[in-house]
């Protein structure tokens, strides 16, 4: 990844300034009849330039939800900003009021509820927009109207990850939060929310330092917390600088908690320095824990502690397998590269979340100068890679897997992704069959507008 700015009008990082309802979009090909539901996607779309230009960053824009509804071979689109407290106050003022990376101003009258710009999930019959430092925002799934922050009967306190995991066996939502003791503190929380929306666990522990812990790993029996040396520093924030920076001297730490016990079971293990934004999946392999992650040698998008950029070659993520053996002493942690194509945004058939999975996907790069332009489908059992690369200049979003039927075999279904068409300055939704990824889309939904580069989304099936 490069370090994009949201203010460049000549690329797809630039914000859009309107909300649309497009009820009947043209479709090239034929939408699979099994696709009846909505793909919800979230991403940053700032309504104003940043208050602090030194913190102009892709991660800092106001959240906007993009909804692609497919039903009976037809396609519709709707987009809406998430009406957070920050968004509403700035819209009323007509200019920016809050810096996304600064500690909250204790004199501010704007509630510190965040920007809700990273992920959007369905749990406990609620559509929730997420970002990792604040509570979820609930949305109306039909209109995308904002219902407000969701605290689950006031049981949820503090930050809430953008990457919770749903246990396919129990339906529980497993979550965590970092900087739980206040901005840039090492305190973390860990908890679960049952399918009925009740918070059934909420515990707290101390990490070695305040790392940007964007994602974590959950298995049937364990939870892994990667504390990697992208550290938040209040002194940098107070100076108006980017508060998160790469500090490899802090070392890399992996926290392990047993799900059938509380945080008293927490053990820490050391690994070589690296950074991970996203986890593909994790599972228990006898006494060992296995996690497949997109690993960087140094993080992109953030500087080193001295303000210099991280090394371009080192900021290429590849799919890597972590194996943790808690009984192996000093040789407890090992890493093995699974695929050599750089990429990001790994996803799997979510019915295998926390279990050994055979298949996975990610958005890859066909060459070093490309943005993410290749949709990759991996058979991790055989090592075979299937891929479809977009035309030169185009770019792909995170692929989302939808099974062909609820009882289909693992990996039997379709991948949905948003494609940026650079020459036309607009976007498409493309649908590929996992049985023939290399053949390209079986259907393409054409948008007259563009969807700015964003982060994560999920498919929500319509009731049958």
Architecture overview:
With 464 residues, the chain is mainly beta. 3% of the residues lie in helices and 39% in strands. The chain is built from two helices and 33 strands. The strands form eight sheets. Strands 2, 28, 29, 30, 31 and 32 form a six-stranded antiparallel beta sheet that branches. It has a five-stranded antiparallel beta sheet with strand order 1-5-4-3-33, with no helix packed on it. A hairpin with a 3-residue loop joins strand 14 and strand 15. About 1% of the residues have low confidence.
- The number of helical segments is 2
Please give the number of β-strands: 33
Q: Quickly give the structural class.
A: mainly beta
Portion of residues within helices:
under 10%
- Overall mean pLDDT: 95
**Gyration radius from CA atoms, angstroms:** 21 Å
Give the CA-CA distance, first to last residue. Answer: 40 Å
User: What share of residues are in beta strands?
Assistant: 35-45%
**Globular, elongated, flat, extended or rod-shaped: what is the shape?**
globular
Question: Which sheet architecture does the biggest sheet show?
Answer: 6 strands, antiparallel
| Unreliable residue stretches | 5-9
């Amino acid at each position: 990844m490069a370090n994009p700015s949201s203010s460049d009008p000549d690329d797809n990082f630039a914000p859009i300034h309107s909300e649309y309802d497009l009820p009947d979009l043209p479709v090239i090909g034929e939408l699979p009849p099994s696709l009846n539901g909505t793909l919800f996607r979230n991403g940053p779309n700032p309504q104003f330039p940043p208050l602090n230009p030194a913190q102009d960053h892709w991660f800092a824009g106001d959240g906007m939800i993009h909804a692609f509804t497919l039903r009976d071979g037809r396609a519709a689109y709707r987009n809406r900003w998430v009406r957070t407290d920050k968004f509403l106050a700035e819209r009323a003022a007509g200019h920016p009021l809050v810096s996304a990376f600064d500690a909250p101003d204790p004199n501010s009258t704007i509630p510190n509820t965040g920007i809700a710009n990273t992920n959007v999930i369905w749990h406990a019959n609620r559509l929730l927009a997420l970002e990792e430092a604040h509570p979820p925002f609930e949305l109306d799934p039909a209109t995308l109207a904002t219902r407000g922050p969701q605290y689950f009967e006031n049981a949820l306190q503090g930050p809430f990850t953008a990457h919770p995991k749903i246990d396919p066996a129990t339906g529980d939502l497993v979550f965590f939060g970092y900087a739980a003791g206040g901005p840039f503190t090492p305190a973390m929380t860990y908890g679960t929310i049952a399918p009925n929306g009740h918070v059934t666990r909420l515990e707290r522990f101390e990490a070695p330092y305040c790392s940007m812990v964007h994602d974590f790993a959950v298995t049937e029996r364990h939870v892994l917390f990667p504390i990697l040396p992208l550290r938040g520093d209040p002194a940098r924030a107070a100076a108006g600088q980017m508060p998160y920076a790469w500090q490899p001297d802090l070392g890399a730490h992996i926290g392990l908690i047993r799900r059938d016990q509380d945080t008293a079971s927490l053990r820490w293990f050391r690994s070589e320095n690296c950074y991970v934004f996203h986890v593909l999946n994790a599972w228990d392999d006898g006494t060992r824990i296995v996690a497949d992650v997109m690993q960087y040698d140094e993080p992109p998008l953030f500087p080193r502690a001295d303000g210099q950029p991280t090394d371009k070659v080192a900021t290429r993520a590849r799919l890597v397998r972590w194996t943790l053996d808690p009984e192996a002493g000093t040789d407890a942690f090992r890493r093995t590269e699974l695929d050599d194509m750089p990429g990001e945004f790994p996803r799997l058939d979510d019915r295998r979340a926390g279990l050994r999975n055979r298949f996975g996907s990610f958005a890859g790069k066909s060459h070093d100068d490309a943005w993410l332009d290749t949709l990759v489908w991996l058979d991790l059992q055989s090592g075979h890679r299937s891929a479809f690369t977009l035309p030169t200049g185009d770019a792909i979003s995170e692929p989302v897997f939808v099974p062909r039927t609820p009882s289909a075999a693992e990996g039997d279904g379709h991948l949905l992704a948003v494609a940026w068409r650079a020459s036309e300055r607009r976007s498409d939704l493309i649908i590929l069959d996992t049985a023939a990824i290399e053949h390209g889309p079986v259907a393409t939904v054409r948008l007259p507008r563009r969807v700015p580069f964003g982060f994560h989304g999920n498919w929500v099936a319509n009731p049958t």
